[in-house]
Amino acid sequence: MNSLPLLEMKQIHKSFFGVKVLDDVSLTARAGEVLELLGENGAGKSTLIKILNGDYQMDSGEISIEGERVIFREPYDAEAKGIHMIYQEQHYVPELSVAENLMLGNLPTRGGLIGRWTVDWNRMRALAAERLQVLNLKIDPDSKMKDLTVVERQIVEIVKALSAEARIIVMDEPTAALTPPEVERLFQIIEDLKQRNVAVIYISHRLDEVFRIAQRVTVLRDGRHVATRPIEELTLASVVELMVGRAVESHHSETTMPDASAPVLEVNRLTRYGVFEDVSLTVRAGEIVGIFGLMGSGQIPLTQSIFGAEPVDEGTITVNGQAAAIRSPQDAQRAGIGFVPIDRKVNGIVKGQSVRNNITLSNWRELAQAGFFRQKREKEHVQRWVEALAIRMAGGSEVPIRFLSGGNQQKAILARWLEADAKVLILNEPTWGVDVGARADIYDQLEKLAQQGLAVLVVSSDIQEILAISHRILTLYRGRLTGEFVRASATQEQLLAAAAGKTA
Ligand SMILES: Nc1ncnc2c1ncn2[C@@H]1O[C@H](COP(=O)(O)OP(=O)(O)OP(=O)(O)O)[C@@H](O)[C@H]1O
Ligand SMILES: [Mg+2]
Q: Using CA atoms, how far apart are residues 428 and 458, in angstroms rounded to an integer?
């Protein structure tokens, strides 16, 4: 192997509004290797790779490729050197088709003339279909990006970067939305990339993945480089300790099932033809029920329908024994159902508004009624959540939320919904992008809410998470329930089999 690293970033410094976000950070990436970049939410990972991609300019430092110094003023410069990004935030053109988004920047043309009339649309569609095939995906190249689910969009992003002739591919949390079989597929692709001598820089908060794919690990903490080690020298515990600066206890949830009280939420034979069918489930007060299904199994539409955001064809919903006629989210909220949507970063966030306003949005009316005391109450309330979920921000809770790191944005938005004061809380992917320590904080909060009598229904693609927090787990396959497990005795293998439609 070539001893000269393919990529070297040396002594990088970067501040935002006078706050040091990267302080003397260095990193190397080698051809044919996966370097895992780790750190808590807000540690500076995305900032570092955005500098590598020419999105941000560093204040000082050096980047070289094969020993030759490079200067990236914009993403185009980085791309010209074979650097490709799969971003945490999605970048796509909503009105264009999947095929067009995939081929953006290098549309196949006829005769080589540039212009819309020369684009070879048939060839483009065929190429796009072929590329989607690498991940074994059934995504129609003709559908518009805006009509895809969040997960499907994420996958299109991945496919897009894979099809470029990249020498360095950076993946910022590519698996946050993926279930185990899709993760496996992505790992195979990463293996192929390694064989083709591509350098992969990989960021993830699913720490078990580190030991599957990484050769080396670089850890950042509070904008500083903490360690770079070969994977053989690390254990899960030591990785966490490097990230957090102290040992973190893994989450131990109450294994005792809540009393067999009457169910708070009762869903009866709920059906939306072609999406989910004949789904019956109950959630009791104090109970956390997890739903696990592979991509596109109907778990997300199911929760959206329970919340009234999507229509149903048949079936009933009961809350505390009372039939609830839910035709809109307002109806659901009136019936006492709170909801954390999957696309909260698209719909759930007010980007220009402060962190404080984003947290208090759902509670605004109640706080407003407090009149004179409003400001004080609002401050206390925000402070409580900032502490409970360890939301970190450089400029305090008055900065616009878009300046927060990806994981900290997620935590702030989640705080808003946890405050909703509901009888039933439905959460989709509660810890997307959230680091190991803050995950435990969120699990603790959910458990606390359950102990106070809330009925909790959680959809997650992260099987470890489902196993860690649910008292009871339901599996969904092609829109139908295929299994019910008590957490204490469920295994990952059983869940996966049931989610793949295999009956035991
Ligand atoms: N454009 C920006 N303006 C102001 N501050 C920013 C900006 N981008 C990032 N920051 C700040 O820089 C710090 C590091 O953020 P960064 O996004 O690099 O973290 P991260 O390690 O990627 O975290 P996460 O795991 O949550 O994605 C954070 O404190 C964040 O608030
Ligand atoms: Mg990030």
A: 6
CB–CB of 6/67 below 8 Å?
no
The whole-model pTM stands at 0.84
Q: Could you read off the pLDDT of 245-299 as tens digits, one per residue?
A: 876 666 655 555 666 678 999 999 999 999 999 999 999 999 999 999 988 899 9
41 lines ligand 1 (CB under 6 A): yes
The rounded Å distance from CA 125 to ligand 2 centre is 32
- CATH 3.40.50.300 in the chain: give the residue spans: 7-244, 250-336+423-432+443-504
CATH code of the domain made up of 7-244: 3.40.50.300
Topology of domain 250-336+423-432+443-504, per CATH? Rossmann fold (3.40.50)
Cα 89 to middle of ligand 2, angstroms: 9
Report residue 351 as tokens. Answer: 């980007």
480-486 and 472-477 strand pairing: antiparallel
Q: Residue 87 C-alpha to ligand 2 middle, in angstroms?
A: 9
Tokens for 134? 């690498």
Any atom of ligand 1 within 6 Å of the Cβ of 456: no
Question: Which residues are placed with Cβ below 5 angstroms of ligand 2, an ion?
Answer: 46, 88, 405-406
